[in-house]
Amino acid sequence: MRGHGFLIANYVRGNSIIHRTPLWLKFLVVAACGTASFLIVDWAVSLVIFAIMCGLFLLTGAGFRRLLRAVWMVTPILLVIGLFQWWQLGAPTAGRIVLNVLVCVVAASVLTATTPVQDLLDGVVALAKPFRRFGADPERFALTIAVMLRSIPYIAGAFSDVRDSARARGLERNPRALVLPVFITTVAYARQTGDALAARGLGEPDLRD
Questions:
Q1: Could you give the residue ranges of the DSSP H alpha helices within the chain?
Q2: pLDDT per residue over 99-128, tens digit each?
Q3: What is the Cα–Cα distance from 6 to 61, expressed in whole angstroms?
Q4: Do the Cβ atoms of 43 and 106 come closer than 8 Å?
């Protein structure tokens, strides 16, 4: 299986000021961007914030190509959303919605590009600990995120490999030649992941009285 990028950037080693920024502050910035996406009503403000987040991403040293790839991965979805919103609510609103989504994507990419995965998961556990009193399991929550981060690129890679194989056989327009192999690969991967977790005593609820 070839490696495939996902819509957020992978960790890039560095010593930039953003790398040295405390994890809680980076979490706060991402949360603020998500909250702002519901509050901003002017597309020009969204554009300014998007430009700022792009500047922060470039400061990480991850490079313009990684930024472009993060944006490009969501372009087809945003194109559909933007056209629909343009039709329903007009161009300014459509532009604001698309830019707000891009702000969230770039903010998440800044976080992942400057934070090792293990540190990110440790931070998630620390943030979730206050909810333990309500029955939450921070470690299980972090495990879920870790599995997600590993699974989505794998599935995306499976689809790309199957698509290339179908194209080589002249079947790129045959839905069965694309969907069925990806479905089988995904189910097999899910079973392997479940078996691996079960072998380590993970993934099952605690049934003790």
A1: 23-39, 43-59, 64-89, 91-113, 117-128, 138-168, 175-199
A2: 998 998 888 888 888 888 788 878 877 877
A3: 18
A4: no
Angle between helices 117-128 and 138-168 (to 10 degrees): 140
Does residue 59 contact residue 51 with C-beta atoms inside 8 Å? no
Q: How far apart (Å, rounded) are the C-alpha atoms in residues 9 and 59?
A: 14
Of the candidates 89, 92, 2, the residue with the CA atom closest to the CA atom of residue 45? 92
DSSP-based three-state secondary structure for 187: helix
pTM of the model: 0.68
Indicate whether 205 belongs to any domain: no
In a domain, 42, yes or no: yes
Q: Which of 115, 150, 174 is the last residue of a domain?
A: 115
